[in-house]
Amino acid sequence: MKNYTLLFALLCVFASGYSQKKDSILSETISAHIFKPATVDATDNLINGLQKPKGFNVKKFAGDLGKPRMMALGPKGEVYVTSREEGYVMLLKDEDNDGIAETKQKLLTKENAHGITVKNGMLYLITVNDVYKAKIKPDGSLDSLDQIVKDLPDGGQHNNRTLAFGPDGMLYISVGSTCNACAETRDENATIVRVDTTGKARTIFAKGLRNTIGFDWEPTTRTLYGLDHGIDWLGDEIQMEELNRIEENGNYGWPYVYGKSQYNKADEPPKMTYAEYAAQSEEPVMQIKAHAAPLDLKFYKGDMFPAEYKNSALVSLHGSWNREKPSGYKLIWIRYENGKPVSQEDFVTGFLTDSEKEIFARPVGLLELKDGSVLVSDDENGNIYRITYAK
């Protein structure tokens, strides 16, 4: 556990031609913190003590996985899981349908393997710079990888690439920023990129997205929503994490504006005022507590959970490292009504213990199984948990 306090002075120099006076300087002192809860073992008592709504249950589906991250569902219910840090794709099978994976098979190693998805019997995998596809064999193993994209920009600070198929059959790729807040030199950084399954027809779908790892389409409207990580070092409560309705050609403000047209005083938009830049940027439709670090967002389509959860979004919050009082380390629901987000609420909490000084899991990837149960991966203790519901 580490707890430090840092003070920053933000100096913003504004050039001539803007509404601000030439060479005027705005100075602001910000108090920021570093706090990392200590990791403890994921004991049965801690797992059984997780807080969740009545009728829900959380059990370990697989363990000893190192640092599992993102997951995808195979044609026969197999689970594919990646680890960027360890560079693997692993196959998990629950062959006797008891809710526990008996088979763990490492299928391949690929440096920085992270985002993964399956469509029409093909597995798609993304690293920092490359996208691959491979045919899934009848036993769940993979044919050789075929590279379809090879020149995505380098990751820098944000190299956790993710990908998913949209309703249009195109592949959408999250390409994070290289920095906390800066003017990027590559157009594809801080964007959602869209390509076809051959890697062609490549375009920037939306920009101004600092690091939108988790995104999905609302089932009734087929509208894309994504959770963007806020800028660090603006304070414990700033910048909040953003839920954006992501539309083609949209600009979502980073690095110059955030939230409800708030200005990042450390970075000045080129050749225009903050107000002008904000006017051409989209505001978030909802915000989540600062630094909670949303890593996945999945709309629930199954029938196991009560009907009130259907077509709402389950979100994993990996947890903060740079605020005095920890945020995140839990699962939440974003409730949707008539295809639009209306509220948020805790779903599974307790990965951060009551003392708020220890954790036994950091939620990452989410995956709905064929029976409607949901898996959540943990890259802190190397487990995957299964969430079920029974009256």
Report on the structure:
The protein is an all-beta fold. It has a single domain, classed as TolB, C-terminal domain (Neuraminidase, 6 Propeller), CATH 2.120.10.30. It is 3% helix and 42% strand. It is built from two helices and 31 strands. The protein has a five-stranded mixed sheet with strand order 13-14-15-16-20, with no helix packed on it. It has a four-stranded antiparallel sheet with strand order 4-31-30-29, with no helix packed on it. Strand 13 and strand 14 form a beta hairpin. The longest helix has 6 residues. The N terminus is likely disordered.
Question: Would you spell out the secondary-structure blueprint of this structure?
Answer:
Elements: E1 2-13, E2 25-36, E3 38-39, H1 44-48, E4 56-62, E5 71-73, E6 79-83, E7 88-93, E8 103-109, E9 116-119, E10 122-126, E11 131-135, E12 146-149, E13 162-165, E14 171-175, E15 191-195, E16 203-207, E17 214-218, E18 223-228, E19 241-246, E20 250-251, E21 257-258, E22 262-263, H2 274-279, E23 286-288, E24 294-299, E25 313-317, E26 330-337, E27 340-348, E28 358-359, E29 363-368, E30 374-378, E31 383-389
Parallel strand pairs: 3-28, 16-20
Antiparallel strand pairs: 1-2, 4-31, 5-6, 6-7, 7-8, 9-10, 10-11, 11-12, 13-14, 14-15, 15-16, 17-18, 18-19, 19-23, 21-22, 24-25, 25-26, 26-27, 29-30, 30-31
